[in-house]
Design brief:
This protein is of the alpha+beta class. 22% of the residues lie in helices and 22% in strands. Keywords: Electron transport, Iron, Iron-sulfur, Metal-binding, Transport. InterPro entries: 3Fe4S_ferredoxin, 4Fe4S_Fe-S-bd.
């Protein structure tokens, strides 16, 4: 499956800006005050790193859509 979309879902919990996502996938995520997905991020080329970021997020607020 290919990742088509990545977003921050704070409907249940909030991003705590721990920076684990940016450590796992620095070409996809940045954490100025809370996680943001870089607009020019190549999701397909960074799939493994994105999945690692999702799995390591302590608040589980990173969501992905796969096709």
């Amino acid at each position: 499956m290919t990742i088509k979309k990545v977003w921050l879902d704070e409907s249940e919990d909030e991003c705590i800006a721990c920076d684990l996502c940016a450590s796992a996938a620095p070409d996809v995520f940045e954490v100025p005050e809370k996680m943001v997905v870089l607009p020019d991020a190549d999701l397909e080329a960074n799939e493994d790193e994105i999945k690692e970021a999702v799995d390591s997020c302590p608040t589980q607020v990173i969501k992905i859509e796969e096709e």
